[in-house]
């Protein structure tokens, strides 16, 4: 099938302690607040042309509001909406103008697990800049990982309906398959699907300028007392670095850099045995992956499943 999704735009979170989350992301994490209103904040990455990469919304319940992807043209948005509607996918609304920063044209729908997904085109490009050496703030949003009780069914849904392709899989002899890395462009993954006990956010990843900036940022967070659950290290699948932290509401967030770019015509997916330590961390510098580390990213049960966010 033709691929109409081009890239990951932003991830939107609802949080009970809005002020604490806003201070975290616009402070030590290194994003820039570019717009907002009472109980809502839009945060951009300095090196990204996207209007924002994180939206925070004040809510009594913690939830993943939505994941937003880009399309090339409004015609592609319409084509995707028609394709999904014909396949019986529940649309939250028909394609139309967006009222969020940068405007654009898009629509929302529920994925197989009940997450709200948005696809948009013609969003205005934000004025952004090249980060300087040693400037340890995120350049852009790298990828998002989602927990699913049935990763094979969710993988098939994204392949069938949105044209994502499988890049690699993590598995072990004792646990079977635990993560599928999915791409919508030559980047190794814009999204991954992790096996978890319930549908929820696994982690959000932010690209840094380079290895030095990645390490400076990791050190800044450690000095600020932010809890790091895993890292620093370098994965085999995707060949990217990783430092995983917890935000104030227990969502896992990652600093990364140097995520692999693939030759899509020549690429064949691997199945990596993640029980081998060099698979989870090529460098051998991170604390060992174990059940306690894995459970940190199971996150809370998402109360927003099959319930579209109010904004």
Automatic annotation (TrEMBL):
It comes from the Bacteria. GO terms for biological process: L-methylmalonyl-CoA metabolic process. The keyword Metal-binding applies. Signal peptide: none annotated. One of its GO terms (molecular function) is metal ion binding. CDD domains: BphC5-RrK37_N_like. Residues 7-122, 140-258 form the VOC domain. PANTHER family: BLR5325 PROTEIN (PTHR43048:SF5), METHYLMALONYL-COA EPIMERASE (PTHR43048). This is Oxidoreductase. It comes from Microbispora catharanthi.
